[in-house]
Amino acid sequence: MKKTLIALSCIALIYASFCAPGQALGADKVKFAASWIITGADAPYFVAKEKGFYEAEGIEVDITRGYGTLENAKRLDAGQIDFADADTGGLILARGKGATVKLIAMTYHKNPQAVVFRNDSGIKALKDLEGKKIGGFVGGANTVLFPALAKANNIDPQKVEIINMFPGTMAPALASKKCDATLEYVVAFPDNEKAVKQAGGEAMYLLFADYGVSIYGQGIATSDKIIKEKPDLVRRFLRASIRGRSWCLENFEEAIDIMTSGYDVVLYRYLRQFQIRSELTEDSPFLFEGSMVTICNEDLRTPHGQ
After folding, report:
1. By 3-state DSSP, what share of the chain in percent is helix, strand and coil, each rounded to 5?
2. pLDDT in tens, 197-215
């Protein structure tokens, strides 16, 4: 009898080690890349990790910074990462060049790309960009799609000088008047707003979406290979990510504490990003409850809470 109990105990321990989702032995290890440097906009993923939402789905997530949509697409295609934050327009361009990647969920209803400028730049309308110097990251989705914005607003692109700038240098350049405007995501506006204010000015922005380039904004992407070979992993990753977004919305102050105490995120930036993100959604700063649904395959659609 004693030997039987010992044997059963051993079996139970072995079974638990394989089945418990939080155990490294049985967990699917996943690499997720943010769109760029880690900011408050990435809170749902870090919260989902901190609160054990990924663990509950049997996933062990390594969250790293990204280097823009086009680079994230290359890394997804090469199998270096499994999921990534990506811009719709940039991903379409990447796929057009042969990348086998797809968006599987939307996180912005509205295109977040924007022209950011100083109130004393002489820019009142997009047509005023002619004759101006604009900072933009060459190869970045904002810069790549600028010709579409120009065409939609009768802007002669030959009369606009695009200066190649690393994203982190755009706010200081705008503040010091080294450029007249920048091409950025509106969630980066807090950096520009603060830098320009410190320089004695006021920053403003115009959204691409309000001026003829109304496409889906940011979303979560993965490779065709993962969609085909690991559809259940896609479902579980999305389910946990959606829980993270919902939790952030319902526990705003604690989400702030998690990001500001555990990660290198400036509180000012984080608070303003929440405020600005609300402009990109229909009802809330985060998309959930059916808003964040997969768009690649019908059988991968995962309603919130299921």
Report:
1. 50, 15, 35
2. 999 999 999 999 899 988 8
Write down the residue that tokens 């993965």 correspond to.
222
Cα separation, 109 vs 85, whole angstroms: 14
Question: Under a CB-based contact definition with an 8 Å cutoff, are residues 101 and 73 in contact?
Answer: yes
3-class DSSP state for residue 134? Answer: strand
Q: Which of 178, 218, 181 is nearest to 68 (CA)?
A: 218
Domains delineated in the chain: 27-109+217-300 (3.40.190.10), 113-211 (3.40.190.10)
Residue 238 near residue 220, CB atoms below 8 Å = yes
pLDDT tens, 259-278?
Answer: 766 655 544 455 555 545 54
**N- to C-terminal Cα distance for the chain?**
43
Q: Which two tokens stand for residue 62?
A: 């390594």
Buried b (16+ CB within 10 A) or exposed e, 91-120: bbbbbeeebebbbbbbbbbbbbbbbbbbee
Taking the C-alpha atoms of residue 192 and residue 302, their distance in angstroms, rounded to an integer, is 37
Q: Give this prediction's pTM.
A: 0.69
> CA 140 from chain center: how many Å?
14
Helix, strand, or coil (residue 187): helix
Q: Could you give the angle at which helices 267-277 and 189-198 cross, rounded to 10 degrees?
A: 120
